[in-house]
From TrEMBL:
<dbReference type="InterPro" id="IPR000073">
    <property type="entry name" value="AB_hydrolase_1"/>
</dbReference>
<dbReference type="InterPro" id="IPR029058">
    <property type="entry name" value="AB_hydrolase_fold"/>
</dbReference>
<dbReference type="GO" id="GO:0016020">
    <property type="term" value="C:membrane"/>
</dbReference>
<dbReference type="InterPro" id="IPR050266">
    <property type="entry name" value="AB_hydrolase_sf"/>
</dbReference>
<keyword id="KW-0378">Hydrolase</keyword>
<dbReference type="Pfam" id="PF00561">
    <property type="entry name" value="Abhydrolase_1"/>
</dbReference>
<protein>
    <submittedName>
        <fullName>Alpha/beta hydrolase</fullName>
    </submittedName>
</protein>
<dbReference type="GO" id="GO:0016787">
    <property type="term" value="F:hydrolase activity"/>
</dbReference>
<feature type="domain" description="AB hydrolase-1">
    <location>
        <begin position="54"/>
        <end position="179"/>
    </location>
</feature>
Length: 334
């Protein structure tokens, strides 16, 4: 059942319909690398249109489904989109979740340079977009990215404007003014290992101690961690369970964002843009978001929503409905 505290499903065209969930393994542009795409829609949805089709992608550390299809209080974000009449998909870039991991990730990290650079991940986004457009016979769709995923979706939109209807950026990445929590310094191997304890501490960095439990209840974190760490069987089998995350994004942060070099020009984006940011985001500051949106000179319009008492991971916290409702209103408007 939907969260009884939330009323935005009232009047949704498919609020009472069953949800159809379909998992796909699609080819990438690299032999042997396949990409996991999950799609959800209401059983009663009979026609498909660019205005009601969306692809979501994750950030630099964790896969898509545990962010966008985790049913807190009985309802995931993909479920929410489906009940509002959307054909909604989420993608695991190679090296994450259920997508194929590059062979370098099957060996000690120190034996290889960072894998899954941003340019490669954008090609994976392109493969998923092409799959969805061909499957539904539509010319374009909306895109949503979170954290590093905002760079993937933003750069893709800047180069492929004819395929993008609207663009949603959750915690948009821009030139760094603060150290990255993902970069511990020193030489980088192919990937990094993240424990549950480290994941929780990074998540709550910047949250006042008395408010931590109210922002992220223990059972919410454990549900997310169970779903996330289960996607890495090798990591789950270690004495201290870990999840492997490719280091390509960390290397790119050093070469671009931390070096004052934009990876792409936001001014090339030609779709409407919604930027959403959390007040307590310790990874990407409010100043970074402000600098980013001011460069959206080619967008027909843009909007910036600040989520009070939200961290970098506000989409999985008790205040998540602020973000979900803001995104839904943006997607639904003419």
């Amino acid at each position: 059942m939907p969260d009884p505290r939330h009323a935005s499903l009232r009047g949704a065209p498919f609020a009472d319909d069953a949800i159809v969930s379909e998992d796909h393994m699609i080819p990438s542009d690299t032999p042997g690398i396949r990409l996991f795409v999950r799609g959800k829609r209401a059983a009663g949805l009979a026609t498909y249109a660019p205005e009601r089709t969306i692809l979501l992608v994750h950030g630099s550390s964790y896969p898509a489904a545990s962010a966008f299809d985790l049913p807190h209080a009985g309802l995931s974000w993909l479920d929410h989109l489906a009940r509002h009449g959307y054909d909604a998909y989420c993608l695991d870039v190679r090296g994450y979740g259920r997508s194929t991991r590059p062979p370098e990730m099957d060996h000690p990290a120190s034996q290889s340079s960072p894998v899954v650079r941003t340019e490669t991940a954008i090609r994976d986004v392109g493969a998923a977009v092409a799959f969805i457009l061909a499957r539904r016979g539509i010319p374009r769709l909306s895109l949503l990215g979170w954290s590093w995923g905002t760079t993937l979706m933003g750069a893709y939109a800047a180069a492929n404007g004819e395929r993008v209807h609207k663009l949603v950026l959750l915690a948009p990445q821009w030139l760094r003014t603060t150290p990255s929590a993902s970069d511990q310094g020193g030489a980088l191997g192919a990937y990094r290992l993240i424990t549950r304890e480290a994941a929780r501490e990074r998540w709550l960095r910047g949250v006042p101690e008395p408010l931590r439990a109210a922002t992220l209840p223990d059972d919410w974190f454990e549900a997310w961690a169970d779903a996330t760490f289960a996607t890495d069987p090798w990591g789950a089998a270690q004495a201290v369970p870990v999840v492997r995350a490719p280091n390509g994004t960390v290397q790119d942060s050093r070469e671009y964002w931390a070096a004052g070099r934009p990876f792409y020009d936001p001014g090339d984006i030609r779709a409407p843009v919604l930027a959403v940011h959390g007040e307590w985001d310790a990874e990407f500051s409010t100043d970074m978001v402000q600098a980013y949106v001011r460069r959206l000179t080619g967008a027909p319009y843009w909007r910036w929503v600040e989520i009070g008492a939200g961290t970098h991971t506000f989409i999985l916290e008790t205040g998540r409905w602020q973000a979900l409702d803001a995104v839904q209103a943006f997607l639904d408007e003419d």
